[in-house]
Amino acid sequence: MTAPASPTKVRGETILSVDNVVKHFPISQGVLFKKQTGAVKAVDGVSFELRRGETLGIVGESGCGKSTLARLLMRLETPTSGRATLEGKDLFKSSGAELRRLRRNMQMVMQDPYTSLNPRMTVGDIIGEPFEIHPDAAPKGSKQKRVQELLDVVGLNPEHINRYPHQFSGGQRQRIGIARALALRPEVIVCDEPVSALDVSIQAQVINLLEQLQDEFGLSYIFIAHDLSVVRHISDRVAVMYLGRIVEIGTEQEIYERATHPYTQALLSAVPVPDPDARENRNMIRLTGDVPSPADPPSGCHFRTRCWKAQDICAIQDPQTVLRAADPHPSACHFAEVRPTAA
Amino acid sequence: MTQSAVRPTPASPTPPGGHLLEVRDLHVEFRTHEGVARVINGVSYHLDAGETLAVLGESGSGKSVTAQAIMGILDTPPAHVRSGQILYRGRDLLTQSEEQRRQVRGKEIAMIFQDALSALNPVFPVGWQIGETLRQRQGMSKADARRRAVELMDLVKIPAAAKRLGDYPHQFSGGMRQRVMIAMALALDPKVLIADEPTTALDVTVQAQIMDLLADLRRDLDMAMILITHDLGVVAGVADRIAVMYAGRIVEHADVRSLYRSPAHPYTKGLLESIPRLDVRGQALSTIKGLPPNLMRIPSGCPFHPRCPYVQQVCVDVVPHDLVLGDGRTSACHFAQEVRDDSAR
Description:
- The complex is a heterodimer of chains A (about 350) and B (about 350).
- Chain A contains eleven helices and twelve strands.
- Chain A has about 350 residues and is of the alpha/beta class.
- In chain A, strand 9 and strand 10 form a beta hairpin.
- In chain A, helix 4 crosses helix 5 (about 170-180).
- Chain A is globular.
- The model of chain A has no long low-confidence stretch (mean pLDDT about 85).
- Chain B is of the alpha/beta class and about 350 residues long.
- Chain B has one domain (about 20-110, about 190-345): Rossmann fold (3-Layer(aba) Sandwich).
- In chain B, strand 1 (about 20-30) and strand 2 form a beta hairpin.
- The interface of A and B includes residues 202, 207, 229 and 230 of A.
């Protein structure tokens, strides 16, 4: 397998650009005469750019819209509004053959390696299926040979091509999912919680594989996870989501060492650190209450109901995700500042 | 090193009157169509009043099965307790009748489960479910059980408890459901609380709230707690001692600080090195090669030897016994001293 990078493809240039994407799921009532009574604002105006060869981590708690965002990018959901371009081509407006070509360039690795593989298909059929859907991208010679190459790339035994998913362990199944995503030589891979279902010792193997594949093939990742330590490890840049919005985005260092948004700070301080000594020096922020319903988010800043810095302005004015004086990276807080005793 | 069948549990000396709860050389197997899976292979641990013991392990290590054996809720068949003792206040639970065990369950030892949504009955209000134990076991009247249910919900800090008594489980968030579960477990005022992955299904901010709540309750109600988890981070904050399980055995047993500072078993060392740290920017993660063993074909000698960087011929041939290290810790590794010295560096 040769790296797909050609001279015109410069590492660091924008490959995927997402602009103010919104997805509202309607809530309807009534049986005969359905009428819309509200909307779940799953993704509520998200913008970011993904650069070639980088990993953008997206973190947030359940219900913050990170998986819906992934599904929107894969066109598994139709956005309510907004725009996204992959290498300059409009992702949301294209259809038919054009959409298929775009999708070839962007693949997804799912969270659950137990349910995302068809139990009645052999591994060879699962990994080779993309070639049937995209015949023009299929290898010229033997398809089987190519599938075996892919198995080898992800560290599985090429001779196991005729086995079924249940004959593999969780970590191996996730490797099958990764091989399937690599089949069409995409440039962008959206990983939706790719390691959350795996045991710690296996998780590290899969993370290392993802990093190694990125170097080898110049891939760009959108890495969605709720585990902040994993995201820090793999990401170049990180976006933090809360109730359908990105509240802070920056380089891995900006987010983890100089976070300015209160939610990011609380999230970071809540992560259990596997070291009893480091833990005592840490200054924990305990958030009270639960995440509000995305069907009825608070006015103004969505985080204000749980925020210890909330003032009147937070209820009235929606803070924009812009560069803040405290530390120049985009943060959506009126009172953005670096935590003085950040641990 | 003793070669006796019952291995001594390390650290604290046996208090007069014995440990509150003690598991001795427990063996459990699952008899299935494909063969016999040896899930627990000689587990011993103990718990004293007021302390928190963490049982750490990956899926299939047998940590939950041990807890289910203590509670007497193993699915039999396929599970069979082959041998061993579970002593609660000196009495062996495994020899007791079902009626006697029922008196212990809930009242002396209670358990909370990982997935609160599937552990709660969706068609009954939570107040009714919390009160059920009180009506059944203590013969309380409906009105008394209701009153006590409100108290319990207050105790686990469910806001507006009296109002939420009639709500159904689906009307609660994940964290609140776990609080309901905790309230149910506390209903009969148990002395031992077994928490099986209590926060695994929860988000980090909620996870922190629940762990705080459990720590507070343990202290205020003077319970002893067994915390079963796979998360090395969660353990570091609350546990006094840790028992690390692998392939149905306890491979290392130590107080929290020594275990994190200088793990003395290659498996523990590998685990600690393979987790990405939030506060330390890492390079490539070191991994434990290979996969956990198939419990129907556990490797000879030390079950960890096919994955172990310290492996020697002796590990293939001889099952390592618990090596008692100077500071009252044990490690079931032939090279425990070396591993500990390596990690202390």
